[in-house]
Design brief:
heterodimer; A: 176 residues; alpha/beta; 7 helices; 31% helix; 20% strand; globular; B: Aconitase, domain 3; 3 domains; five-stranded parallel β-sheet; 33% helix; 19% strand
């Protein structure tokens, strides 16, 4: 299914956030994506972050630092974002399996250089950040407190094709 | 220009290059367990594509929560079991025959040099110990693997890690890999293949190589590969003896996968491990590592010996040698999970189970168990476990619990002392 991208952003200012923090293993006994919804980021301990708070509920974009999604291969991690309406993740870098799982589900795992991630975090200190994504043009527009940042992003042609196809199953089924 | 083992395996399995830098590989093995496979099965059914590409190349096991602990895990097992029967997947392992996937599948001889292997489990990199390209994937990759027998990867840029010197007595593969992760960091090999080389690897048993390869993912590595040699042949011989006239012939055949002398590596790292001490993690990332002496004396509530990292017979032998004739501390809950039924039976025959039980350990059936806090051995808030597993993430073994990763020898010593302890000083 095709996804929509962009919207209000939540910022997680830490590197190496792992998949156990995103969705603890005890919830892996669920066999539907929807059932994961209440448990998003339940075990993440981060100053100012509340996994049950309104900021996370409103978020459609997640911005974070390095090596996001490290650890387990569980696709429950991108799924818990998907069922909570977060289809766009922006980070300085990702763990390989998490990144692939995100694109495989037709969602965006955008990678930006440190300087650009720093600019987004700086913008978040001016107020609530709204991010618009132009996948074709490979640009992001981030707005907060009357200020706007436009950032260009790189995406591999394969990852872009997965997002446009709606995911890897659709892509592979049409081709192999 | 020469090629690495990973590049040779990619070349031999390339189905498609839909875009420059994207390699779609044919798969020799698609391995499945009951946690990540049921959602793939349900999705295939929903799409009207409940098919498998080759039921002899798919292997399945119920290992994470077994026997089922509640209705939800019973359903996961049932979904995998019904699917395996529906598609006549002969190599499906259920209660009575099941064990930890990354110990069971190698033991059955399913993994061979030069193979491409995926599984919906991050520790699939373990199988790289056999000279295979083995990668953990998510459920969607698994689903496409089941349906089409392919998986997509980026170019396998390789970090070569040369491990040289002589391991001191009481220092094991687990200490080596914890040290390496401590040096390169949890992000040190992300999107890279690690090739483990050097005399230390050459001298290791297959069990020790599996411990090494198992934790490649904890440095972010896609796969952790050891070159196949006579040790690999000896391990696989019962399964390949009809394919080759002699072990030497098998070894020679496996050599075609070896990285060329002039292969190009992204990075080459040299570690002389002669002065290495037993290593233990602190904190909540596997790269937070210190020599055991610096953490000795820290209280533990539980000791867990088992898992896909260190639940093999060699590991149990090492722990039993430390435990023999001793009792574990009164306040410590000792749990051992032999990783497969064969390991369990061998441990019984060798008197190892007696040693564990006489010391005060609880022996469980083969399962992933306490490692990820899904079934037995869950920690209470504020409790600490000395564990032979591979992950010390916050809450991994139970909300608010803490895990120190270490070798089976250090775990056994810590069980006796009731605090983190150096087995060499007991």
């Amino acid at each position: 299914m095709k996804k929509t991208f962009g919207g209000p952003a939540i910022f997680l200012d830490r590197s190496d956030i792992n998949t156990d923090e995103i969705i603890p293993a005890k919830y892996l006994t669920e066999v539907t994506k929807e059932a994961l919804k209440p448990y998003i980021l339940e075990d993440l301990k981060l100053e100012g972050f509340d996994p049950k708070g309104q900021a996370l509920k409103n978020a459609r974009v997640l911005v974070t630092r390095e090596n996001f999604g490290c650890g387990s291969s569980r696709e429950h991690a991108p799924w818990v974002f998907e069922v909570n309406g977060i289809h766009t993740i922006i980070a300085q870098s990702y763990a390989r399996i998490f990144r692939q799982n995100t694109f495989n589900g037709g969602m965006l795992a955008i990678e930006l250089p440190k300087a650009d991630i720093d600019r987004l975090f700086a913008l978040s200190r001016e107020g609530a950040v709204e991010i618009a994504v132009d996948l074709e043009g490979q640009t992001l527009k981030a707005r907060a407190g009357g200020r706007e940042e436009t950032l260009r992003f790189e995406i591999s042609p394969f990852d872009k094709a997965l997002v446009q196809a709606g995911g890897w199953v659709e892509f592979a089924d049409a081709r192999y | 220009m020469g090629k690495t083992i990973a590049e040779k395996i990619f070349d031999a399995h390339l189905r498609d290059e839909p875009f420059s830098g994207t390699y779609v590989l044919d798969l020799d093995r698609v391995l499945c367990h009951e946690i990540t496979t049921p959602v793939a099965i349900a999705d295939l059914e929903w799409r009207g594509k409940d098919r498998v590409f080759d039921n002899t190349k798919i292997k399945a096991v119920i290992d994470h929560v077994t026997p089922a602990k509640d209705s939800k895990t019973a359903l996961q097992g049932k979904m995998l079991r019904d699917w395996a029967h529906r598609h006549a997947i002969k190599d499906f392992f259920d209660v009575g025959h099941n064990g930890v996937c990354h110990a069971l599948f190698p033991e059955k001889g399913y993994i061979r040099p030069g193979f491409t292997v995926i599984m919906g489990d991050s520790h699939t990199c373990t199988h790289g110990a056999f000279g295979a390209f083995a990668a953990g994937v998510g459920t969607t990759d698994l689903e496409v693997g089941i349906l089409k027998g392919v998986c997509a990867f980026r170019k396998p840029n390789t970090i070569r890690i040369n491990l040289t010197g002589t391991l001191a007595p009481g220092v094991y593969a687990k200490d080596v890999i914890l040290y390496v992760i401590g040096q390169i960091g949890v992000n040190g090999a992300t999107d890279r293949v690690i090739e483990f080389r050097g005399n230390i690897v050459d001298e290791m048993s297959m069990e020790a190589r599996m411990t090494l390869s198992n934790m490649a993912i904890e440095a972010g590595g896609t796969s952790g590969i050891c070159l196949p040699d006579m040790t690999t042949v000896d391990y696989l011989w019962p399964f390949i003896q009809n394919d080759y006239p002699s072990k030497e012939a098998a070894c020679e055949d496996f050599r075609r996968w070896h990285s060329d002398e002039d292969a190009v590596y992204e990075k080459v790292l040299d570690f002389d491990v002669s002065t290495l001490e037993p290593m233990v993690t602190y904190g909540y990332k596997p790269d937070c590592v210190k020599p055991v002496g610096e953490l000795a004396g820290a209280r533990v509530d539980q000791v867990y010996i088992g898992t896909c990292t260190n639940g093999r017979i060699e590991d149990l032998r090492v722990a039993a040698a430390v435990l023999k004739g001793k009792k574990i501390a009164e306040h410590v809950r000792g749990i051992v999970s032999p990783a497969t039924p064969k390991i369990f039976k061998d441990a019984l025959k060798e008197g190892i189970i007696d040693i564990f039980m006489d010391a005060g350990f609880c022996v469980t059936n083969p399962t992933c168990g306490a490692c990820l806090g899904m079934s037995n051995g869950v920690l209470a808030e504020g409790e600490v476990c000395a564990s032979t597993s591979n992950r010390n993430f916050n809450g991994r073994m139970g909300k608010g619990g803490m895990v120190h990763l270490m070798s089976p020898a250090t775990a056994a010593a810590s069980a006796i002392a009731g605090v983190i302890a150096d087995a060499r000083k007991l």
